[in-house]
Structure formats: C-alpha cells, structure tokens
Amino acid sequence: MLNLTYLAVLEPGEDGSYGVSFPDLPGCFSFGESLTEAGQMAAEAASLHVYGMECDGEEIPTPSLSLPKEETEGMVVMPITIHPDLYRMKRDNERIKTNITLPAWLKRLAEEQKVNYSRLLEAALMDYLQIPKTGAK
Fold first, then answer.
1. Whole-angstrom distance, CA of residue 50 vs CA of residue 1
2. pLDDT at 135
C-alpha cells in the first residue's frame, strides 16, 4: 500500500481558524475552524487532489522533506499522510446516483414486482460490458 506524506502549511486566521495549502500540491487548499479540523480537512483535500491528478494522468509530486523557514514563518507546518490506493478504492467503489428514463407502464410493472433498479442495472451493465462477476464487489 502506497503512503505519501506531504507537508501542509496552516496559516492561522484571526478567529482561530486555519487556511491550509500544500507547496508540493499546487492548487490544493483547504480550511478548518480549529487546528484539529484543519488537519483532517487537509488530509481529505490532499487525498482528493492526488486522486484527481491520477485520474487526469498527471505525475504525482514527490513530497518534500522540509520547507524553507522564510516561507513558513508564523505558520504551522504539519505532515499529512495520505493513502492514495485506499482513497482510490473508496472513490471508485462508492455508490452514485444516476437518472434513467423508462416508459411509465414499464416502471409500474417493475414497481409492482418490487424490482431493485440499482441491482438490476448494475448486473445488466456488467453483463453488457462483459465484466466477470467474480471481480465485482
């Protein structure tokens, strides 16, 4: 299992909140009302950012071991460990809603028979796409 630890820079706000950025992950930002929440949100943001990069075929940046003090003065630097393989599995296997269009008469018959649309559509798609049932979860 792949683990990556990036250094998050937490900038304190006047109200006790923290803005989060990752020098190694340009465009990855988050926010937390407290230091604890900022750390949790940072992990979620970094995981999602790396997942998006993987989906787009981008190279995943190597984490820095340290940051220049002049760039982090007055801020909190926190190591954030993410697990891209676990996050990818979670995202790729989560259930999502999708809309379909059916004739009204067919919908009525299916509801009378208590058809589970999700299960039926999933099975039909796997059959249509020739995905082996043993590989499905």
1. 15
2. 52
78-124, pLDDT tens digit by residue? 999 999 999 999 999 999 999 999 999 999 999 999 999 999 999 99
Q: How far apart are CA 51 and CA 81, in angstroms?
A: 14
* Cα 22 to Cα 80: distance, rounded to the nearest angstrom: 10
Between CA 14 and CA 35 the distance in angstroms is: 13
pLDDT at 136: 47
SS (H, E, C) the chain: CCCEEEEEEEEECCCCCEEEECCCCCCCEEEECCHHHHHHHHHHHHHHHHHHHHHCCCCCCCCCCCCCHHHHCCCEEEEEEECHHHHHHHHHHCCCCCCCCCCHHHHHHHHHCCCCHHHHHHHHHHHHCCCCHHHCC
